[in-house]
């Protein structure tokens, strides 16, 4: 009997290996690392903004699409299966069906958690829901928590901790004060048990709040060491990677990025805020974040980070304790477009999702077949001419066009045509055509949003030189004016 079951097991194993080999996915690229070769294949395509990917221990990849669909892909045979559609999802720009997490012990606790925005009359909220996966369906919906939502800054990510608790990263719901307000659950990382109850060892009595002072978290994951990391969108500057500590304050809206301004230092001192591990200016719009430990040696013990505006996969190498980022590499820059999320399977295969069907596609995207889920795994031989890491120069010396593309084009678009009803066109624009003084004042102080519900951020952090270069490029782009703006002129309006 024993012998037979052993043989049976072996044949099963062999069978599943063989099947995996026979997945026959379309090869998109080969990537050459310092010490190995990878292949990038297309696991799924024609999706509608696959917002969150989560690996379940029974070898399925679960995903949400922004419009409301929840699906899973069998990683052994590639089969795609729609499991559920959340009818009550309210989708607009960055609202919709967002985060998803599956219980790490899926066999015994087949819980699938999602969060999404709903709109009832004037009232907008974010719901955190728990489903139980049984009979091939998501059953027994249970609402764990409902919090304030808005047209932007809804955060989204959910993670299960090694302590068995649920961690939910929320956005400030575009009300900046929320992030520091202890009574608000926005701009926070919240912690609860599987029933949605507040654990007794949370840092503040009778509060879900685990950490506070966040603008808009888009990535959240625990490392193998049990440390919790987040990625966060900065305003016009200073995206962040944070190491999350129980009860800590991360400073938004009083602090952006490192504690480097006088007012920031004062606030940091008074409130004992923590600095990020890492920060980007110009912004890259960091999104999904996953800790990697696995057979790809060059990436072992790192954070994999997808970037939307930055259109790349960034690999952030951690030091031994996981308390510092000691290296950064950029891959696939502009190759697949905006990247929304990343997940790692137990065998070390990596999955990333594109986000080119979303509200803010970059030039040249979406392409036919977007959005996609790409599989990254070790390859034995290069079938295609291999690509390598992108050598992205440091951004300190940018001039005119580059500055505009880095700081302005994400909203007003590279051609200055804007996005109708959201970001005003700069071609044929009254402010651009009007006197230089008003334009410089706008760039130096921003605007509260009189025409749409979006703000124009202040660019006072740029040097006079940089503002002058942007303004001159803008005049070139719009062919309205020949005037040359000097740094001295900018200085006058500070
Ligand atoms: C995060 C998005 C965003 C970025 C980045 C941004 N803007 Fe704006 N901009 C806006 C919004 C929104 C408005 C409209 C503000 C309002 O209604 O008050 C605006 C307004 C303007 C206007 C006035 C147009 C009008 O019709 O009122 C100008 C000029 C302008 N921006 C130039 C720039 C330049 C130059 C940059 C780069 C240095 C830039 N913007 C970066 C969002 C942005």
UniProtKB/TrEMBL annotation:
Q: Which residues form the Cytochrome c domain?
A: 395-478
What keywords is this UniProt entry annotated with?
Heme, Iron, Metal-binding
What GO molecular function annotations does the UniProt record carry, in alphabetical order?
electron transfer activity; heme binding; metal ion binding
Which InterPro entries does the record cross-reference, listed alphabetically? 6-blade_b-propeller_TolB-like, Cyt_c-like_dom, Cyt_c-like_dom_sf, Glc/Sorbosone_DH, Quinoprot_gluc/sorb_DH_b-prop
Q: Does the keyword Ribonucleoprotein apply?
A: no
What name goes with this protein?
A: Cytochrome c domain-containing protein
The record lists the organism as Rhodonellum psychrophilum GCM71 = DSM 17998
Upper lineage = Bacteria, Pseudomonadati, Bacteroidota, Cytophagia, Cytophagales
